[in-house]
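Researcher: Structure prediction, please.
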Amino acid sequence: MKTLTKNKTEKVEVMALFGYEMTPCQPLTFRRRGDRRETEITELLRTHIHFAGQATLHVFDVLVGRERMRLEFNSQDLSWNLTQ
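Model: Predicted structure follows.
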């Protein structure tokens, strides 16, 4: 698995569940570029929204095993970014 230095961001592909109970979006797994394996998200810790110009960033703080990560969904270009 590819390792990142702290606070480095990379684009990822995310499998998410939309419209589930009280959480409108819940990321379930993600895949890094060039990696065939999906990484399972163990727990959704917190969600919030950040407005950046014309884009809305939907921010998800998650646990992968014991490691804390952040996934961001950009509503303008429909991309997902992972920050570790």
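Model: The radius of gyration is 12 Å.
Researcher: Thanks, that helps.
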